[in-house]
Amino acid sequence: MNEYIGRVEADLKKYNAHSHATDPQKNLIEAMNYSLEAGGKRIRPVLVYAFCEALGGDLDTAAAPAAAIEMIHTFSLIHDDLPAMDNDDFRRGKPSCHKAYGEAMAILAGDALSVLPYEIIADDTQLTAEQKVMLISLVARAAGKSGMIGGQVIDMESEGKTDLTEAELENLYRRKTGELISVSCVMGCMCAGTASPDVLYSAADYGFKLGLAFQVIDDILDVTSTTEELGKPVGSDAEENKTTYVSLFGLEKARETANKLTNEAMACLDIIEDNSFLKQLTEMLLNRKN
Amino acid sequence: MNEYIGRVEADLKKYNAHSHATDPQKNLIEAMNYSLEAGGKRIRPVLVYAFCEALGGDLDTAAAPAAAIEMIHTFSLIHDDLPAMDNDDFRRGKPSCHKAYGEAMAILAGDALSVLPYEIIADDTQLTAEQKVMLISLVARAAGKSGMIGGQVIDMESEGKTDLTEAELENLYRRKTGELISVSCVMGCMCAGTASPDVLYSAADYGFKLGLAFQVIDDILDVTSTTEELGKPVGSDAEENKTTYVSLFGLEKARETANKLTNEAMACLDIIEDNSFLKQLTEMLLNRKN
Considering CB atoms only, which of A25, A115, A154 is closest to B140? Predict the structure, then answer.
């Protein structure tokens, strides 16, 4: 885990190179780096690396796709936090991008981080043209109007609705979180270049299950954790009248669902021989405290 | 011109297909279409088509790149108009996207239009994988932190500065407008697949000259046109204390500069045999009234 995270941190620095102090757009690069360096779990790029390695791929081929997926995640967080969106002043204990750099710069830093992923994949020297085209198609689709951004819209329009059905909530989580996590797993397989269609399908399915389990556990932690442990205010879902797995089914059933999804995710990994790290990671995410 | 514009309008509709009324993110697609359909001069996609055809290429190969570049331009206009940015309530006589759909939806519609271009180029069936990778690299670079978005940042940070030098103003215009216009020309050449390095270089140079001339003419029209003719309030540059070619050099010298740049742009076209439409287009843009 730490080896992968070390690679991710180094890649993000490399791909969003610091500019000279005299560059006219140096504040933009700074704002981008500010949010990229804010940390977080780095789950998506770790999954790219882990699937690539589990399938016997060269980790260097996964560097650009791993950085790309973390940039897309970061861009979505920057725009999510904006006053017109969730209006969050803090992100991981630090002022959010618009609090640190102003709203206009945060919009533009998010925009620049939404574009850079395609440049770094296209310009990579390890991947073939065919691999690059597939990776770009997958990641743009997962990020776009029917994926992550579509999920944001559904989330926004569900605000204040306490009567979402389980299917609606699952659809929302699938797009908002599942698509990007699932595509991370598939991208890792594609970098290895050896995955059969069955393995690709299982990796995609694993990612959706893991992403959904991740959201259900978020719902649980919002009720059971402390602000100190979670690093952000607890109880915000109930305060904002959000439909969650806990509000729909209660805590016990939500825990069962998280366990069930995690077991199903685990089962998807059985097709991969060298799956011990991926199984550990899955277990760790189920038992996380924040 | 009308044939090209007809193609662009049809492509934009096709690539951002209307979703069913029951799709949960249908309002997002609607907001995207609202801004895509708002019209404008369609200069960038017309240049993609015109360079492709001038070099003997099949226009169908240019469809995805042409739509892609217009989407990027549209995404930048939607985010530019936001309250935290230029705070413009109208765009081409219609309410701007955030006035029609709300600020959060406008942010997300811009985001979705910044991602879709890479998906449609990657998924195109006419271009080779190598062409796609080059096109994606070019367009992401032209849009990104050192291109259009970088230019926006410089523009924003230059607000209220009346003492920009000519070099600073040219650098700002080059990034904010020139990069995307220049890359449109180069993309057209790449779609044709027959361009020599000399032709590619001349096309890029033509685009930068044309983009700069375009901005100088904007500066002139802001002083000499009427609100009726221009379709937006005139005199806004002086009101906002903006450095422009007119404020730096006066009207007469600005007109000379626009003529000089247009002539230089024309000269770049001499390397292309079948350049008559491109020369007409260049002339038309010099003499435009809005």
Answer: A115
